[in-house]
Structures are given as structure tokens and as C-alpha cells.
Amino acid sequence: MSETRQHSTEDRAASNGRPGTRSAAEPALPVYPPDGLVVERVFTSPGVHPYDEVSWERRDVVMTNWRDGSVVFEQRGVEFPSSWSVNATNIVTSKYFRGAVGTDAREWSLRQLIDRVVRTYRDTGQAHGYFRGERDAEVFELELTWMLLHQVFSFNSPVWFNVGTASPQQVSACFILAVDDTMESILNWYGEEGHIFKGGSGSGVNLSRIRSSKELLSSGGTASGPVSFMRGADASAGTIKSGGATRRAAKMVVLDVDHPDIEEFVATKAREEDKIRVLRDAGFDMDLGGTDIASVQYQNANNSVRVSDEFMRAVEDGTGFGLRARTTHEVIDTVDARKLFRDIAQAAWECADPGIQYDDTINDWHTNPETGRITASNPCSEYMSLDDTSCNLASLNLLTFLADDNGTDNTRFDTATFVKAVELIITAMDISICFADFPTEAIGTNTRAYRQLGIGYANLGALLMASGHAYDSDGGRALAASITSLMTATAYRRSAELAGVVGPYDGYARNADAHARVMRKHAAANDDARRMHAIDREVFAAATTEWAEGNALGERNGWRNAQASVLAPTGTIGLMMDCDTTGVEPDLALVKFKKLVGGGSMEIVNQTVPRALHALGYGEEKIEAIVEYVTEHGHVVDAPGLRPEHYEVFDCAMGIRAIRPMGHVRMMAACQPFLSGAISKTVNLPESATVDEIAEVYQQGWKLGLKALAVYRDNCKVGQPLSAGRSAKAQSDGPESTTTNESAATGSAVAGPHGVLPTRKRLPKSRPSRTTSFTVGGAEGYMTAGSYPDDGLGEVFLKLGKQGSTLAGVMDAFSIAISVALQHGVPLETYVQKFTNMRFDPAGMTDDPDIRMAQSILDYIFRRLALDHLSVESRAALGIFTAEERTRQVETGSYTAEPATPDTEAVDFDTLAQSAPTSDDPEADSPRRGAHSSTELLESMTGSSADAPLCMTCGTKMRPAGSCFVCEGCGSTSGCS
């Protein structure tokens, strides 16, 4: 340890002369004002460096693409604390270490990364007079280092990418641009977005200033309209995302609901989704990242409609609503408000766009209305502020503040430590604006003038579960609200203190009254919030004190920052902090996919499950039994010894006990009054959800005071990879029943009592059969499927490759094995579940009109067998349809002749659990061994599909993170934070 420490000290000393540090901001002798900040020790001890308190180890990082085994990234001998997971190590090494791989310039230790960033913050803080003396600057550096080292919080990704390097010091993840009604401004918008995407960030813009296609130009011609100009921006983003070194482009396009082109805007992406379906059915590769998807427009942006209270009241009243010209502001058209609102919900039902932003609510909480209105947001909708501004983010790991006094108190939130952590982080975030670079001059000027910050948190879902609170419960919402209130109150109190040291933000004077008014609204919301339990009462009490002190101080000093808090997706940084859940999200599932140090992976029960059981008062033996049950089944329903009233504590975003859509909306509503910005979150709905249900979610979002809301209906987009679902076995009619529908369909022997072996039912000498010739990716073959006279499949023979070749021999052996198993009663559904979606070459287009694309020969074979030998109901559960059935779905919303009526009643979890699939085959009830992420693992256990694309870097299926997605394999995100 001493040798490693010596080496690290020398590295840090050498890094003082690193390139990229802005010398102009670093005078030789720091000047400390007499009232500079006094920084207290919270986590560190005098005379002991944080690096000396942890155990370090060397690891090899080798990341592969699971689809073809190719190496995506490799760096050996990196140094990390032994407490950091392999996942966090891989992501930090591949994403955040700077320098060319394989050269001496490449960073190889977490110490170097933290030092590179933290020393820049300390040096800049000293240079700009933030600290009272040298000792305070040193303590600030050590405290920040300790928190980063122990995964207490993380800055957003651009900080790790850029700070302390020779690159521009871009620290912001979120940008809002402005576009006016001139060609110069529109073309400038294209260029500004390109610079932002190149830097690894995302941007949002409101196009409502651009005159509509129903208005005239000054030359007398007709204007193109904003939707037309969206095409050029979309093409630009699609090009830049493939060339960026850090992440895909992320963008938001907003249009006001009173814009004359609003109906065209609403239908834009839904119309393109129809085009995608037609092209897919014609055999084109229209999957996310597919070779032909680039021919479709408007796929690189999230779209949102900015609605007003006037419009929402017109929807309630069923009256008309005026669309106004952009140049004269006169009403040039009137629409039925209720119909337009339903069109918005219909489009969201079809393709998840557009989302909703509630304009009057947003601007009612605006601290700078004298400067201008808030018209847009960043791509994930958590940052909302003035045009041509940016926001840098940081997020706390909430689970690190859940007190655990030797296992005797799992339900106390450490408010005192949390407050100190927020103070330090807000100080650092404000310092970063002093040295930050910005993509445009206007953004740099406005950001320095208003100094918007976005502190937030991750691991809320894990915190609630570990403390014994259900996510969708009054107690869970009260605790989330109290923590959010305390975080923002502390951030603004520290902002007022900073204003007393280095002055308020430049735009404060003209907005002083408005800023103070919003602070009082936050404090009033805190006073009115519902208290439920001792844990949230303590946090609310601390928040009340912080609001009172901070507002009194702000009235005297002003505030240093126009905004302070948001709830971001925390995708990559959430993995860096080893968080189980991202942002404000609930847990994805109770069983997770985990990488191992020596390579390979395994599925494990979340560590929050046993911690929650401790908090609920269960003993060690019961906890062990429940954890074992969860490992096997993936849920807690009927777990031995677990009381049914505690099931809700373990509800997740997916699975048998999935949280209902309004549970997500209510959680957002509980936190929103205590945030400067908004919340990045998508409300997920099942495939059976109706347009009316989506409209109700959007309506309730307005009534509950949210600032923005987005929805996603399962399987509404072609770009979502489908997973084969397990169909539940038909329930027997009574205790005397000895057969199931499956055994009758396949002609299999009836399963007897435990210990009785299955018997083989041989096919008769003469039996019906079907021979199918096929082509998959250019490889030709033949399949002969023989059936029992009662129409149950009994044998499969495959001819592929030349006689005597290895391939032909393997396929013959495979055919015999499948045939014997079918005759012993293994249901065809089992093989369809196992082999569909299996990926290997040859793959690609087929000559089968029902299966235009296949991921492998086995994928094609078992899809064809399913179409030929399974009922339409069984295939529907597996997600396999004929071309005619897919067409019928597009036209009627149902694969059957008559549209099915969705059951919108509340789910009976007990009944659902009783009808859950079971099997004597342990493989059938266990997670698929081919899982490569927690999302894939959960899909394999529940038989449902998740709304997540495949990672474009490593091929692993991503998981939701706010309104974006994050890859657990390599840390890539689809968002901007």
C-alpha cells in the first residue's frame, strides 16, 4: 500500500503541469476575501488522505460485443478500489479515462481521474475567492475526493470527459437553443446543434417562432413551416451521432399548442412509424441501428407539445381553441381542443411521441421571468430555463445516506451528512462555471450570467425498498418528497451563502422579486407536504429549517444561482456509482445481471431485498428462504414466510407486480414542487393500454402540477426488439383433471406423480408432414415436419449443407434430438422460447413472406414451426404473427378479426401469480443463460418485453434511465446526462 501511495503522490504532483488548465484563471497567489467559505471536515480525517483509507487492486478491462465476440475495448492493469464493481470499473475505464489507449499518456488509475477533476475545481475556487484560506481549499479538495472515491455522488459525464484535459472544458450536459423566424437563425441552429453533439451533450429548442406553412413570407410566397425545417436538423443529428466519440446525439423539439402547424407536428412521428412498419414487412432492416432506418425521418429527436392552461381548460370544457399566426398573433384557425388533445394521445399511443410540457406551470416556477420566458427544455426534459443557456448536473447516491447502525436501524436517513454533502457539491458545481467553456458565445454569456445548476439524485427506488417503503405508496412518496425538498433547500441556502462571498448571479437584480417569490413557493410546498412516518418527518423538519434560513439569507445576499436542482436520468454515472436504480425510477427488477471479476457473469438478487426484509422485521432464516425464492422466480408473490401486505415494497418497473402507470405519475408529482427544473422520466404503459388511458395520464400530469411528461406503450415502436414471452399453461378445470391443453395439443404423455419418467409416444408409420424450403441470408435449406394424426408436431428433419459435411451431420443430430424430445412430451412452445431470437450467421433476409428477417437459421426454423403448428393465441404470447396478422394489427389494433377490448381494470396480483407459468424443466423457469443485461434477464424470467433498444456500441440490451436508456455493459447512453 505504501508503494502504491508513493506512486500516486508523484503522479498527482506531476499532473500540476498538465495541459488544458486555463492559466488565466490561476493567479500565482490566491486572493481570499475575509468572508470566504469555511469548509468543515465531514468524511475525512486530519493527516489521512482518502486514498490511504481504501484497499486498491489491479484489474484487466476487456469488453466484448456479445453478438460476435469482437473486442470493443481493452485496457489491462487499471487500478480501482476493491469495493468498486467490475461494471463500474469497466465503464469508468472505457468512458472516462483520457489519453490514447496503449500509450503512456493514458490514465490507468481512478486516482488520476479524480485528481484531474478535483484539482481543477480546487484551483479555480481558490483563484476566484471562494475559500477563506488555504486550509479550507485543501479540505474542500479532500472531501470532494472522498465522496467521489466512495461513490457518494458523481458529476455528469462531460466533466469526466473534459475537465483537466487539453480539450475545451465543457462541463454542461444540457443545452437550450433559440431559433427565430429567419433563415440565418435556422441555419445557425443546425450549426450550434452540431457543435453540441460533437461535445457529447444534447440540446432542446422551441420552433414556435418560425411562421407556419399557413402564413405568407414578406416576398409573397408561402412559408415552409417548422416541420419542414425539422427534416434538415434530423438529418444532421443522424450524421453526427455516428461520428461522435462519446455518445449518440440527443435532442428535443418543442412546438406550442397554439401554432398553426401543431396538427402536422403531432402526426409527424406517428406517420413515420407507419412507414417503418410497411418497410419492415417488405423485408427492410428497420430495427434501431438497422441499415435501412436512416431512410426514415424525424427519428433523432424527442418531440413535445407545449400546452397552456387555456388549452387544457378548453379540453375539459370541450370548446374550440384558436391557433395564432406567428407574425401578427391573430387567430387564423380554430380547432376542437378535445379532438387535438386526443390526437396527441393517439400519436403517443402509436409511437411514444409527442410528450407534453405544461407551459404555465413551468413559468409559474420561473425565477427569471423579467429576462424572458422558459420555452423549451433539454432532450430529457429535466432542464428548463432561458433560451441559449446550459446546465451542468451532478447526482447523489441516496442509498449511501441510509443509516445502518450495526443492522439495528435501517430506517433512518442521515440528514446531517446529506446536508453537508449537498453544500460541497453545489459549491463545486458553481465553481465549474468559472472555468467552463461553451459551444456558442450566447450560451456562454447567458450561463455565466444566470449560473444554472442541476443537483439531483439516483437510487431512490433502492432507498425506498431498503427502508421498507413501497414506491407506489403514500409513505414512499412522502420520503421521496422530503429528501427532494431538503436537497433543493440546502442547495439554495448554500447558493445564498455563495452570493455573500462572490456575489449573486448577474441577472439577479432585475429578477429579485420573482426569485424570492419562487423560493417562498418552494417553502410553502414543504410546509403543506404530507408527513407519514418518523423517517420522513425528520427529513421534512430539516428541510423546513433549511428553507427558512436560506430564504432569509437570500433576501439579504441574493442567490448565486438562478436554478439549483433537477432529476436527471443518471444513466452512465448511475452505473459508475454502482446504483441499483437511476434517477427517480423504481427498481427495474428484483434479480439483476452482474459481471464477475474473472470474466463471465451471474444473476443475483438485489442486495436491497435482504436489507428491506431486515427493515420489515424478518429474521435471518426467513430472509434466506425468501431470497432463494426470489432468485428462482424473479418475484416475491407466494414467497415462503413473506406477508402479503409487504408484497408492495418489492414492486418494480417490470415483472408480475409491475407498478401501475399512475404510480409513476404520483411519484413525480410528489417531488416536482421541490425542484428548480423538472424530472426526466417516462411513464411506461402495457401494450394493452388504450388511447384514453394515455390521455388520462397527460390530463392528470397537468392537474398534479408536473412540468413535463412522456409515455411509452410497450411494443409501440418497430425499433423495440421483441422478446419471446412464455404463455401461461391452461389451468385445469378441477382437482381431478390430469391433462393440460399443451399435452393434448402435442400428443405427449401425461405427466404423472414426481418420480415417474415420461413415456415416448411414437409416430405412426404413416403420418402427415410438411416440407418447407427456405433461404436465410443466402443459405438454402429444407425442413420436413411430421405430425401425429391429431395434429400435434412429432418430428423435425433439417437438410442443410452437403451430405457428409460437418454442418449436415450436426443438423441431423439436432433434428433427432428435437424429434425424440417432442415425442416425450416436451411442448413445442418450449423450443420456440429457447431458439427464437438466437443470433449467429448466416442471418438476414429470408424468402418467407411471413418471416422477412431472421437472426439465425434456428430463429427462422422455430418461428416457421410456431406459425405452422401453434394456435394464434399461443403465438401471440410469443410475439410471432403472420404477415396478414401484422397487417390486421396495423389496421384494427388487433391480430384477430375483431379488435380486442383491452382490460383496463386493476390487476389481481394473486390471480396473476397463480396463473404464472411453471415447468418441471428447471431451465424453463430460470433466467436464460444468454442474458447480457438486467433487462434481458428480466425479460427471460417474466416472458415480457422491455422498452429498450440494443446498445450501438456493444450490442447489449439497454435499460431505461429516466426518459433515456443506458447500457449496463459499456455505459453508453441515448440521452444527454
From TrEMBL:
EC number annotated for this UniProt entry: 1.17.4.1
Catalytic class of the enzyme: oxidoreductase
Gene Ontology biological-process entries: DNA biosynthetic process
Region described as Disordered: 1-30, 722-776, 914-941
Cofactor(s) in the UniProt record: adenosylcob(III)alamin
Keywords noted in UniProt: Cobalamin, Cobalt, Disulfide bond, DNA synthesis, Nucleotide-binding, Oxidoreductase
Basic and acidic residues bias (residue ranges): 1-13
Domain Ribonucleotide reductase class II vitamin B12-dependent N-terminal positions: 61-151
GO molecular function, one term: nucleotide binding
Repeat as UniProt keyword: no
Keyword Ubl conjugation annotated: no
Span of domain Ribonucleotide reductase large subunit C-terminal: 172-712
InterPro entries: RdRp_reductase_class-2 (IPR050862), RNR_2_N (IPR013678), RNR_lg_C (IPR000788), RNR_NrdJ/NrdZ (IPR013344), TSCPD_dom (IPR024434)
Ranges of Basic residues composition bias in the record: 759-768
Compositional bias per record (Polar residues), positions renumbered to this chain: 734-746, 932-941
Catalytic activity: a 2'-deoxyribonucleoside 5'-diphosphate + [thioredoxin]-disulfide + H2O = a ribonucleoside 5'-diphosphate + [thioredoxin]-dithiol
Job description of the protein: Catalyzes the reduction of ribonucleotides to deoxyribonucleotides. May function to provide a pool of deoxyribonucleotide precursors for DNA repair during oxygen limitation and/or for immediate growth after restoration of oxygen.
Entry similarity comment: Belongs to the ribonucleoside diphosphate reductase class-2 family.
Protein name: Vitamin B12-dependent ribonucleotide reductase
Organism: Speluncibacter jeojiensis
